[in-house]
Design a protein that fits this description.
single chain, two-stranded antiparallel ribbon, 10 helices
């Protein structure tokens, strides 16, 4: 029986690692109200090259439009070590007639920090430089991603233009990497906290020497070996490295004038535990930043959901991209995987009024009674 339970736990842990990939696939497949003929695709477009190695993106563009359209840039997840660009655009963006780009970036030992951040920002520069070719509005670009992609989408939105990530690659000099906003979900936002939450990766050998194991997918929040690799051997063992870790994550770039942010956590996320997005939201909100927060009750490491989430997302996209259409009045969750309804944390039985929104985003309000 114990062996069976252990195997179940292993399976659940591996599932948590890939859940964000599966939910992205599900999002691609549901609620796409626009026919395939309404969009044209450009695959494996090189947006920059580093050390002779091209980095590529996929573009999905409205086929018939008489004016430039806003764009959404997707950054995939996968522990910054795996994953790939999307091969189809999700319905929550095509239903609004938005251009959709999905990018690749350097992974694992070839990537890490700041390399992966640099790639993502250069993808924004390339898309903006080629706005006429793609028929997009260069001043209305939203970035999105989950898990590792959530971290990177926040970094793209929050870091200053002169962030020390290596800068533009040849041909992209002088082009801004600024975006109009970020929709990020289940993101690690504080690498110091992420390191401290993870299990020890040190191994004491028979000769009393200490080595460090590699990442283990059976450990859901196995942050230390991942971060050790992604920071190219630098551990959280000095003030200088602590400062580096902080500079490479969103919590190190707090300021009031960030573009609009929608940050989403899963209440029971086993990979990024402790509602790291909420901590970031609270700090930014206290500064007066334009930030919205959503927690999926009982949600794991996956795409956000719950009653009312789709309206929050629709209103956020409308706000961040300054769309002409009125915010959605739908409170259904038809375009996302189904999870339990979202609520405040640590609630006792009683009557509640819940408002979900941000400083510049219309609120969704509901009244309900919570019983034992």
């Amino acid at each position: 029986m114990k062996r069976f339970v252990a195997r179940v736990k292993d399976c659940l842990t591996v599932f948590a690692f890939i859940a964000v990939q599966l939910s992205a696939i599900a999002t691609d497949q549901i609620s796409n109200s626009i026919s395939d003929s309404a969009y044209k695709s450009e695959f494996e477009v090189t947006y920059c090259a580093v050390d002779g190695r091209p980095q590529k993106l996929n573009a999905f563009l409205p086929a018939k439009t008489d004016r430039p359209v806003p764009a959404v840039v997707d950054i995939h997840g996968g522990w910054w070590t795996g994953g790939h660009a999307a091969t189809s655009p999700p319905g929550q963006f095509t239903s609004k007639g938005l251009a959709f780009f999905s990018i690749e970036y350097r992974l694992g030992k070839d990537g890490g920090f700041p390399q992966s951040i640099r790639d993502c920002r250069n993808a924004i520069r390339f898309i903006r430089k080629n706005a006429k070719h793609f028929n997009i509005d260069p001043d209305r670009i939203l970035v999105t991603g989950g898990s590792a992609g959530g971290h990177l989408s926040l970094m793209v939105a929050m870091v200053p233009e002169d962030f020390d990530d290596g800068g533009p690659t040849p041909g992209l000099e002088g082009i801004s990497a600024h975006v109009s906003g970020s929709f990020s979900y289940i993101p690690p936002t504080d690498f110091v906290r992420f390191w401290n939450q993870g299990p020890d990766d040190a191994i004491t050998n028979e000769n009393e020497t200490v080595t460090f194991r590699g990442p283990d997918l059976k450990v859901p929040n196995d942050a230390r070996p991942h971060l050790r690799m992604l920071f190219h051997g630098k551990a959280l063992d000095s003030e200088a490295n602590r400062a580096l870790y902080t500079r490479m994550c969103p919590i190190g770039h707090l300021r009031k004038d960030v573009p609009p942010l929608l940050i989403c956590d899963g209440e029971k996320d086993p990979v990024v535990p402790g509602l790291q997005g909420r901590e970031l939201y609270e700090k930014l909100h206290a500064m007066g930043a334009d930030v919205t927060y959503w927690m999926t009750v009982n949600g794991g490491h996956a795409y956000p959901g719950g009653a009312g989430f789709q309206k929050v997302l629709d209103d956020f996209i409308t706000h961040a991209l300054k769309l002409n259409s009125e915010p959605s009045t739908s409170t259904s969750n038809d375009t996302a995987p189904i999870w339990s309804a979202t609520r405040a944390w640590n609630m006792e039985p009683g009557e509640y009024t819940v408002a979900v929104g941000g400083s510049s985003v219309p609120e969704w309000v509901a009244k309900f009674t919570l019983r034992q």
